[in-house]
Automatic annotation (TrEMBL):
Enzyme Commission code(s) on record: 3.2.1.40
Name recorded for this polypeptide: alpha-L-rhamnosidase
Molecular function (Gene Ontology), one example: alpha-L-rhamnosidase activity
Organism field: Paenibacillus aceris
Signal peptide: none
């Protein structure tokens, strides 16, 4: 069926978002078409008012000739607070087809202006309840509904973390609201749909309020950072009636306060819940609150910092049952969740009142099989539940989360006879990002590595991109975020997540352009190369993945500010050799007792200076800042020349003999083309000399395999990936890791641990190898000249002797992209999917024109969707439009490698199957214009021009004495 359909309508990256703050929201859609090569010729968007009347739209683009189907900014009449807008889309394609209208979707605006707040910040009266007391506060109020309700929304936030209840019902499945932002500048407001929770005969509204990031002790080294000394809540309920009238219920001094069962809650340390202290029905109407305490208005917290929710909320996204329960050699009862996870454990128990059950969370067992808490440092990760004793009761923490695989259980009834597995459930918590990436290959160890990368991201993307989710840190380290962001955005939809975090980074940036080590900033340090560069690299990477020019524009001054900061340092304008830098953090070539690798910090800082300057130049070009682009291009060239003068020898070698120094010089394009091959060869030799092991840290590792593969040493890169001995990505896999480790040897070969002071078993930075796996092994990449995978680049680099297949998929804003391949003795099949309204450039390595099939048909430009075919150095370049494709061909290079154990053709001929394959390859070589293959084989000794005259009968004579490379 030849149809054209519009689907997957999104506003601000989301489906039907509630309570947004963008005054010109960006709209996107996908096109479904069974016809290859479908491209959009034009579109029409119609936006209706809150009643969904498309006959009286607030914006109608009419037919708009454009191939853009993502990030279309609304340009209609000014949008109103608290108003829902409906929209639908139709498209036209280049085949002359017109789609039907899409199903209608909607977005709803949040509370946009501070002047609309009638509610006030409140907290318990400090004369009645100590604001420093540990128990969570309960706040409540009764209210009446004054007629037939059309709709009801609550707009709420907190200085702390909170949960909202209406008539005894929790209003949403979101947790740890309002999240962690740079509170002095930005505090998110959540919007809740509560229409169906209201009653005609009296209503109750309740808020539970705890410390969260706002008031918990955050940071380390004994610091106890607090944004404020007092928790507070702000909520405003708007009830719209069917007759058009409205009533408002807001927080004010008429509310009542108490404490309840949550006796303690902290981000690092866990939670204590005494179920005997529950107030049954406390958030319902007519609850007897005579003994509750008054509240007071908190006038010292501003409304000016409020912004509608930007990030996706934190939710429970998966539930895991423990796979085992056992008693350790030390006598502890321990649960094994089977996966290092982040979240909480829900326990169900039937026990007498006052029974205390304690859960202590940890990531690993020590070499003796005992649960290991040493790497938590000061963090406790302890949950205590005290039963109320009136039948089965269930509990999971409300205001804390833990990083763990193992749970030590104390006090569970009957645990001396073994823990019942069905009494415990692990609830996985993180920012609820839509999964968008997949990768798999023929090596199960690499597939486990990919799983570890994804679980590491899930565990550390809990509202901010944290460095670890278990110890007393859990901070938004800028360096970790920038090295991992491309891997992150491949695997999960991270548009809202990084939009929110980058707005915080900009808010935390210093007037001189300096950037803190962590965002939000609770530790005070700032301005290290590769860390501060997150201000540039992260918005640019978001733009590359999603084409979000608005975010790029919002961050542009921040990006320029960082470059200006670097430029102002020291006496040498084009070299950054001053200040503190983390360098190649945790590199294995570091001096003893140092975390900073052997690569000179000035080399790293200057390399990033050049790299970030280039990115800001490119951003300036995208945004139309032509004069900035010219000046930044000149600066970029000057920094490159200064790098060469300072860090390269006169003969064109890198002066510092480290892997990382060579990697950065190559990947950041800091070496002249005349010496690039030499630098790459030196890097490859450094790897070989180290027995195919890396020595890189946080800076060099993310780019290592790119530097090799892009320089013709892909086989070395694959050997590094598959290196199972220390140090390497598969070493941790061989030790049973289910997330990425902070150190290559967090668990040493003898089972002992790296130092307790910094040893996270869930630390995503080294998971940045995923970016290379997806782009180079599976070959799924983008053409960087056009963002958001509008133009796709498919170029798999086959695993030679190591991998027989690999595949990846990514759901872009345009739709699902797939790239996969299989190799069997040199026979190659490459399969791909290109979504409608995009095109792809496909490079088939080792292929030759005339010897490729698409499906079962010889490839040529008459096939639907095939736009052009040409020879390139690597093989064959094919341009295709949207659709599914399957290319098959033979590759003599792969055949050579897979049979490299045979020194002579006669050895191959003695293997009947090998001889048949060899003849097949020889026929392919002479029946087409394959001179690029001829040059790579020993056939060239016969003379390239003689090959066209070789007959099939001559092959048998030829193979008798042909020597394989």
């Amino acid at each position: 069926m030849d149809s054209l359909k519009v689907s997957t309508l999104r506003c601000e990256y989301r489906t039907n978002p509630l309570g947004i703050g963008a005054r010109n929201p960006q709209l996107s859609w996908q096109i479904e078409s069974e016809r290859r090569g479908t491209m959009q010729r034009g579109y029409q968007i119609v936006v209706a008012n809150e009643w969904g009347d498309f006959n009286a739209p607030v914006w109608d683009t009419g037919f708009t000739e454009s191939d853009q189907s993502i990030q279309i900014a609304y340009e209609g009449e000014e949008l109103k607070s608290r108003t829902r807008y409906w929209y639908k889309v139709k498209v036209w394609d280049h085949f002359g087809r017109e789609s039907a209208w899409s199903d209608a979707a909607w977005w709803e605006m949040g509370l946009l202006d501070q002047g609309e707040w009638q509610a006030a910040w409140i907290s318990p009266d400090r004369n009645e309840i100590d604001p420093q007391s540990e128990p969570a506060f309960l706040l409540r109020k009764d209210f009446d509904v004054l007629g037939d309700v059309q709709s009801a929304r609550i707009y709420a936030t907190a200085a702390g973390v909170y949960e909202l209840y209406v008539n005894g019902e929790r209003v949403s499945d979101e947790w740890l609201a309002p999240g962690w932002t740079s509170y002095p500048s930005r505090l998110q407001v959540q919007t809740y749909e509560v229409t169906d929770l209201l009653c005609k005969d009296g209503n109750g509204l309740g808020i539970v309020l705890a410390d969260g990031w706002y008031k918990s002790g955050m940071g380390f080294e004994g610091k106890n950072f607090k944004y404020g000394e007092q928790r507070a809540a702000l909520a405003q309920l708007h009830i719209t009636y069917k007759d058009g009238t409205e009533s408002i219920v807001g927080t004010d001094a008429s509310w009542k306060a108490s404490t309840g069962p949550i006796q303690y809650a902290a981000i690092y340390h866990g939670e204590t819940y005494d179920a005997r202290l529950e107030h049954a029905g406390w958030s319902s109407a007519n609850f007897q609150d005579d003994e509750w305490k008054p509240t007071q208005v908190c006038s010292d917290i501003s409304l000016d910092v409020l912004v509608p929710q930007e990030n996706a909320p934190t939710r429970v996204t998966e539930k895991l049952r423990p796979i085992a329960a056992f008693v350790t050699p030390a006598g502890d009862n321990v649960l094994d969740m089977g996966q290092n996870m982040v979240g909480r454990v829900r326990v169900t128990v039937n026990a007498p009142a006052g029974t205390r059950i304690v859960l202590k969370h940890a990531e690993v067992l020590d070499k003796d099989g005992n649960i290991y808490f040493g790497n938590l440092r000061a963090a406790k990760q302890v949950v205590s539940y005290i039963t109320k004793g009136n039948g089965p009761e269930s509990y999971a923490p409300y205001f804390s989360f833990m990083g763990f695989r193992y749970v030590k259980v104390e006090g569970f009834p009957g645990q001396e006879n073994g823990l019942p597995l069905d009494a415990f459930v692990g609830e996985v918590m993180h920012t609820d990002m839509e999964p968008t990436g997949e990768f798999a290959c023929s090596d199960a160890r690499v597939n486990q590595l990919q799983s570890n990368i994804r679980w590491g991201q899930r565990g550390n993307f809990l509202d901010v991109p944290t460095d670890c989710p278990q110890r007393d840190e859990r901070l938004g380290w800028t360096g970790d975020a920038q090295v991992f962001i491309s891997t992150a955005l491949f695997n999960y939809q991270g548009g809202p997540f990084f939009t929110k975090w980058l707005h915080d980074l900009k808010a935390e940036q210093k007037p001189n352009g300096g950037v803190p080590f962590v965002v939000p900033n609770v530790v005070g340090g700032e301005n290290s190369a590769a860390w501060g560069d997150a201000a540039v690299i992260c918005p640019w990477t978001v733009y590359q993945y999603y084409g979000d020019k608005r975010l790029l524009a919002e961050q542009y001054e921040s990006m320029k500010g960082w470059i200006a900061y670097i430029r102002s340092q020291g006496e040498q304008e084009f070299i950054w050799n001053t200040g503190f830098h983390f360098g190649d953090w945790l590199a294995l070539d570091a001096k003893e007792n140092s975390y900073i690798g052997a690569t000179p910090t000035a080399l790293i800082a200057t390399a990033y200076y050049a790299y970030s300057t280039r990115i800001v130049r490119d951003a300036a070009q995208v945004l139309g800042h032509d004069e900035d682009a010219r000046e930044l291009n000149e600066l970029h060239q000057n920094v490159i020349q200064a790098f060469r003068d300072e860090f390269m020898t006169k003969t064109g070698r890198i002066a510092s003999p480290t892997q990382t120094a060579h990697i950065l010089a190559l990947v950041f394009d800091l070496v002249d083309d005349s010496v690039r091959a030499r630098v790459a060869k030196d890097l490859n030799q450094l790897i070989i000399d180290n027995d195919y092991h890396l020595t890189t840290g946080f800076v060099g590792t993310p780019y290592l395999c790119f530097a090799l593969s892009d320089s013709g040493y892909h086989e070395t890169a694959v050997k590094l990936l598959l290196q199972e001995s220390y140090p390497g990505w598969l070493y941790s896999v061989s030790k049973g890791a289910t997330t990425i480790w902070e150190h290559w040897d967090s668990i040493k070969a003898d089972g002992s641990f790296w130092s307790d002071d910094m040893n996270s078993f869930n630390h995503y930075a080294y998971g940045a190898i995923g970016d290379w796996m997806y782009r180079k092994i599976a070959g799924l990449d983008m053409d960087v000249s056009v963002p958001a995978f509008k133009k796709i680049h498919i170029e798999p680099l086959f695993g030679l002797n190591s991998l027989s297949y690999a595949k990846a998929a990514h759901t872009s804003l345009y739709g699902r992209i797939e790239s996969g391949w299989q190799v069997d003795k040199g026979d190659i099949r490459v399969q791909l999917r290109v979504p409608a309204n995009t095109s792809a450039q496909v490079i088939l390595t080792g292929a030759a024109i005339g010897a490729i099939k698409e499906g079962e048909i010889e490839l040529d430009t008459t096939l639907p969707g095939v736009l052009a075919i040409s020879e390139v150095d690597q093989g064959v370049r094919i341009l295709v439009g949207s659709g599914d494709y399957s290319f098959s061909y033979t590759n003599s290079d792969l055949f050579r490698v897979q049979y490299n154990e045979h020194s002579r053709i006669q050895d191959v001929l003695e293997d009947e199957a090998a001889a048949a394959v060899l003849k097949k390859h020889m026929l392919a070589l002479i029946e087409g214009p394959f001179l690029n293959f001829v040059r790579k084989s020993t056939i060239k000794q016969l003379g390239e021009n003689t090959m066209t005259g070789v007959t099939r009968q001559q092959i048998d004579a030829l193979v008798a004495d042909l020597i394989l490379l």
